[in-house]
Amino acid sequence: MSAAPHSAHPHEPSGFAVERGFLVAFARDARLAVRSKGEVIQALAFFVVVVSLFPLAIGPESALLKRIAPGVVWVAALLSVLLTLPRILANDHADGTLEQLALSVYPLPLIVAGKIVAHWLITGLPLALLSPVLGLQFGLESRELVVMFASLMLGTPVLSLVGAIGAALTLGVRGGSILLALLVLPLYIPVLIFGAGAVEQSMAGIDVSANLSLLGAILLLGGLVVPFAVAVAVKISLD
Amino acid sequence: MSRTDMRIFKYSSPAMFFPLAGKLLPWFSALAVLFGAIGLYLGLFVAPEDFQQGEVYRIIFIHVPAAWMGMFIYLVMAMYGVMALTFNTRLSAMMMEALAPTGAIFTALALWTGALWGRPTWGTYWAWDARMTSTLILLFLYIGYIALINAIEDKKRADKAGALLVIVGSINVPIIYFSVKWWNTLHQGLSVSVTSSPKMASIMLWGMLTMAIACWMYAIAVSLARVRAIICERERDRIPGQERIPRRETTAGNAVASS
């Protein structure tokens, strides 16, 4: 054994490092997303349509619309991310790729972390980038638009993280999408409260750093813990 | 490992636990009835009328124990979830499945009695108060767990998936509670809150605690009964003395096929 200390695994590629598991999964999912741009654009279109429904339902009174804007944008972002959650794992599960990834030399938590980051990059980030335009439609000021953008930048990664647990638990389950919503939406409530709360506080002229700090804290905690939980959930589903 | 340890672990096997649960069941049922009777007597007849609220406050004797049990049972489920995932014991997951409906019922009961109490005292059935909102979210968590384990057909996978979900949910419960609390203070404070009500007379407190014990005994009794049903459903043939229960045969064709 001492003669070949670096060959712990028989199929180990040359220059092998476990950290590459993250990049491998990330690059693969990002490439797949680039090749099917339609899905990314659909989620964005859904976000815009849902937000636009509220003025139509409530009426064009600008003071009221401005008042509800943070909540409307955040709820729409929540639903939009929810609809894209199956993309993290379900397609790979359906064609067997996920099983191969789980059997690969790379640690599963790193692989799912790569997939979650890729998911955020193609769903959460575009939502955050688009949100100032929607905020303008609701008459938000520039400072409030910046806070909304910041809250979505901090909050949407948590939506991808927590959603990944639900997505992993419901892999291949009958009626999975409704079930996924039922499991994940209650867990999204803190992010919704702090995210929309930050924008409301900036509208009231209060310092927003408390809410944004809490969002950041949830993101750090989630980023640390959730990949391991998702890896456990994937193993449960593949058993 | 000593002999006594072995004897305790013996009961982590569903087949061994089944008769034990059957023996404990009548005792916990009797205790539930006994404490329930004492608690109701104290609450409805002995405890004085409230100075401010009159007779209506007496709903506290079911409302508060129900709210306690709703929260407590979720924590117990999370504890069983950790055991199910780390020790891989089937019985832990079965206990979770047995506890979930009771926890959900207590949580719903807390919300319902709260609404009935809120109407005459606060003037509203529902307010977006921190406690009420987090209790409602707790009910959603119960419903999510029950929906998940029922949707997964493979029982082994359902057990483990449910265990992980409840563990994740229990980590979220404090975060949800504080987020809702801070969200509530941001919007508006309630004019009347439970904590600001006048100090409770000791007889009222005793009535409430007795009712809490009654609810506890009831929860244990129905969970034992339910876990017996779950064990019977899944592992009937492994239970000593129960193998002879005939399989339910819907048609003659099935009976022939199974024999």
Quick tags:
heterodimer; A: 239 residues; mainly alpha; elongated; B: 259 residues; 8 helices; 76% helix; globular
Can you walk me through this structure?
The complex is a heterodimer of chains A (239) and B (259). Chain A has 239 residues and is mainly α. Chain A has one domain. In chain A, 80% of the residues lie in helices and 0% in strands. In chain A, helix 2 runs parallel beside helix 7 and helix 8 packs antiparallel against helix 9. The radius of gyration of chain A is 20 Å and the shape is elongated. By secondary structure, chain B is mostly helical. Chain B has one domain. Chain B is 76% helix and 0% strand. Chain B is built from eight helices and no strands. In chain B, helix 3 packs parallel to helix 7 and helix 4 packs parallel to helix 6. Chain B starts with a helix and ends with a helix. In chain B, 38% of the residues are buried. At the A-B interface, helix 9 and helix 10 of A face helix 5 and helix 6 of B.
Which helices and strands appear, and what pairs or packs with what?
The complex is a heterodimer of chains A (239) and B (259).
Chain A: H1 20-35, H2 37-58, H3 62-84, H4 86-94, H5 97-103, H6 108-122, H7 124-137, H8 142-169, H9 176-203, H10 209-238
Chain B: H1 3-9, H2 14-46, H3 60-86, H4 90-122, H5 130-151, H6 155-187, H7 202-235, H8 252-258
Helix pairs in contact in B: 2-7, 3-4, 3-5, 3-6, 3-7, 4-5, 4-6, 4-7, 5-6
